[in-house]
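Hi,

Apologies if this is the wrong queue. I'm a grad student, and the batch job for Extensin family protein from Sphingomonas qomolangmaensis produced an output file that my downstream script rejects. I'm not sure whether the problem is my script or the file. Here is the sequence I used:
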Amino acid sequence: MIAVRRIIGSVAIAAILLAIAFALFAFVRSRPQDMPWTELDLGQPVGMFTRGKLVGLREDFATCRGLLDRAGIEYTALAPVSAGQCGYSDGIRFTDGGARRIEFSPSNLGVSCPVAAALAMWEWNVVQPAAQRHFGSRVTRIDHLGSYNCRRLYGRDEGDFSEHATANAVDIAGFRTAQGDRISVLNDWDDSAAKGAFLREVRDGGCDLFATVLSPDYNAAHRDHFHFDQANRGAGWGACR
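Support response: The file is valid. Your script probably expects a header line. Output copied below for reference.
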């Protein structure tokens, strides 16, 4: 009798393990973007490991450019800049056409390739869906406060350099829609209607793509913009405030 029970127990355990294996297989097939070993594809939905994969592009400009090419993103590679502890060797500038539809103002925004890759995914997966939900219109333009700036954190004379010092950050100030809506971080962050909801949604969505996301909720220095960067925080850690 004891032997029979052991056999039944073993069969039950095997059945449970098999069911778990089938469930895992089905999950992997339905959401490959959630697997750490899946190759990054900018045209695929955002997954649990997407942010870490984007940050990892810091060390591989060739792979980053290949991802932009495969996603149909038009861009120009920028000449390297070297200025002491500042500068970059992986800068790109979006150009007209291709899979992206949002312009940046002022024009000629240059950013590091990992920031550009995340901006493209942010446009497709976060910004445009949020704009359709809240305004029934797409975003045509993003107002920004720049990227490359050879300075230390918070403009101090000493201490660590900002991610802006390597074009690895961008500051987003506002949005324009095709039907004429203007959404400003400075003026609309506390809005209790569609504009405020939109800003919070695109801020939160950025947290799945950028290593650092800072907003007016962080401090007064960010009252008029979102700061996005791809700082290498190690082990996939990010800051979302």
